[in-house]
Amino acid sequence: MTDNNYDKLFELFPTSSIDDWEKVVNEDLKGGDFEKKLVWNTSEGFKVLPCYHNSKLTNYKPDELTPAIFPFLRATKTTNDWKICQDIVVKDPKEANKIASKSIKSGADAIHFIIKSKISKNEVLDLLKNLDFNADLYFTAPSHEVVIAEVFSQNAKLKGSINFDPLGYLSTKGNYLNSEKDYSQTFKKLHNLSNTANLDLKILNINGSIFHNSGATIVQEVGLSLSKAVEYINKFTDVGFKPEEIFKSMKFTFSIGNNYFFEIAKLRAARFLWAKIASSYNINDEFAKMQIHSETSVWNMTKYDPHVNMLRATTEAMSAIIGGTDSLTIKPFDITYKSQNDFSDRVAKNIQNVLRHESSLDKVTDVAAGSYYIENLTNSIIEQAWKIFLQIEETGGYLKSFEKGIVQKIIKETSAKRELEIALKNEKILGTNLYPNILESISKNDEKPEIYPHSDEKKIIEPLKLYRGAEAFEELRLKTEKLKKTPEVFLLTYGNPAMRKARATFSSGFFSCAGFKIIDNIGFKTIDEGIKEAKSSKAEITVICSFDDEYPEIVPQLIEKLNNSTILILAGYPKNHVEEFQKLGLKNFIHAKSNILETLIEIQNQLGI
Predict the structure, then answer these.
(1) Angle at which helices 121-128 and 145-153 cross, to 10°
(2) Peptide bond into 243 cis (omega under 30)
(3) What are the domain boundaries of the chain?
């Protein structure tokens, strides 16, 4: 098609502004509030509209950006390839070496060794013996970074990172690494070893996953990570390092959650903001490239229905890859209740192999570019994360803000809101507060691995609380599992077929969250028949499932005849009759706005659990 014909074709389709679209939508709403009906007020502090147009963004012009060119929003590289990374917790160096060798042969491009106990130079050599050094090697080994750097300095083929992050350690442990408030000397040793041997080695790891896995929002994770990074830059320039030397030594780690499009935009926004910060130090563009390691979220993972963790990990991995991550770890699906094992490690690695070799996600750089939705999300995250960054800088930087409890307060407030949203089932966790598998039991198979090991080290400051969103519901259900007899819930269904069925389904899902056994019924012809069957079942709990209009007639009878033999609960909240029913002795109501967690804890208390 010639350019002339192309222009003529589009003359047939007049352009429409966002105002034109909103006018049509408002007509369809017939007086409904556009803002309330269609605009999403996110927890990130910005609004998401139902429709986006090719409007101007406040922070950048998408059509003027190119991958691998400053400010690197689209990418720091010209391809979309990434390193497939596997975590290995090192208990026995020789055994960990075998796992690493096998993993590299089956598709891993990077190995992340996690060392939680003392390790010697010889043990590090055992760990690396005969490994394919084409793979990147990442180490998280608090207190032992210098030993590992010494091994790196003696073998120029080694490349990767030593994840030195003393502020991250302080943030999660409540004390300084090795009690060293001045950690610049350790950085100096690491830098000298790396620089002398001319190693391809990142020394500092700005671990942002600690914020995510404490319940922080996306913009908080980005803003706080940037603030932590700037704290290092200021600290080390004060003792004589050049900004280029510090920027060159850094990598970032982000956790990727289940908010698919937001997480894609997060990595794009983070690269842009890091380049913005780098430009203020007047350094070469090459050093302004943010190296990102991503890992799937632990906060989202569950003990119950754990195979759903595989599905979560797949969408999270896609977000990271499409967002342009440099390397990626997928957490094993059973990490919440099982120690490291070959099967779950292989599944985790093969999710990435599928995304690379079958889905070809490595072939196109920044496929999100040009999407009005993702471009606007990127712009919004840039704005809100920058506000968080400036807030921390205005209070003296990351360290002072943490010492004053400001960082903890920011995250506590967010995590409390998220916990409430989970309890109200506004934030859904499949298999936990939504569609739980009532036949599942995990108490006998729960090895209780230490995802977040307890530290007996003295705390000089309040640390962040690393945890998972599902933990409160899991604790509730595990209490039920440990009982000799599982409490039973009898659904007394009566009256209007549609309403009794709807409320029985709701009640079944409600009490399944606590692991209670459900006795369902298709509907009783008379109330007396329902009462008889309820008594015969000897169920600890009876839930009345009917229509609001029928409750005034049947509830008084049920209270009179059942209230002393079972915990009686009404499905629904008929406002005009609640006070009357309460005076008659009915204490419990469940409905769509119930705090499920609080209600189930109260029911367990009434049962003496």
Answers:
(1) 60
(2) no
(3) 18-56, 83-400, 483-607
Structure-token pair, residue 106 = 């089956």
Where on the phi/psi map is residue 39: left (φ > 0), alpha (ψ -120 to 50), or beta? beta
502-518 residue pLDDT tens: 999 999 999 999 999 99
Cβ–Cβ under 8 Å, residues 517 and 546: no
Residue 340's identity, in one-letter code, is Q
pLDDT in tens, 181-200: 889 999 999 999 999 888 89
DSSP for 556-577, please give it: HHHHHHHTTTSEEEEES--TTT
Q: For the chain, what's the residue count?
A: 609
Cα separations (Å) of 88 from 78, 140, 443, 515? 30, 10, 26, 34
Tokens of 12: 């047939």
Q: At 400, give phi and psi (nearest 5°).
A: -65, -40
What does CATH list as the number for 483-607? Answer: 3.40.50.280
Q: pLDDT at position 450, please? A: 65
Helices vs. strands in the chain: H and E counts, helices first = 23, 15
585 vs 27: CA distance, rounded Å: 49
Using CA atoms, how far apart are residues 588 and 319, in angstroms rounded to an integer? 43
pLDDT band at 53 (very low <50, low <70, confident <90, very high): confident
Q: Which residue has the tokens 């208390």?
A: 605
* Residue 202 CA neighbour count, 13 Å, CB half: 24
SS3 543: strand
Q: Judging by DSSP bridges, how do beta strands 327-329 and 47-48 pair with one another?
A: unpaired
CA distance 405 to 408: 5
How many C-alpha atoms does 34 have within 13 Å on its Cβ side? 14
User: What 8-state DSSP symbol labels residue 59?
Assistant: S
Residue 593 has pLDDT above 80, yes or no: yes
Under a CB-based contact definition with an 8 Å cutoff, are residues 230 and 280 in contact? no
Taking the CA atoms of the chain, what radius of gyration do you get in angstroms? Answer: 28
End-to-end, the C-alpha distance of the chain in Å comes to: 74
In the structure encoding, which two tokens stand for residue 493, read together? 């269904």
The CATH superfamily label for domain 83-400 reads Methylmalonyl-CoA mutase (3.20.20.240)
Position 6 pLDDT exceeds 70: no
The pair of three-digit structure tokens given for residue 149, joined into one six-digit string: 């750097």
Phi and psi, residue 66, nearest 5°: -130, 140
Q: How far apart are CA 72 and CA 86, in angstroms?
A: 27
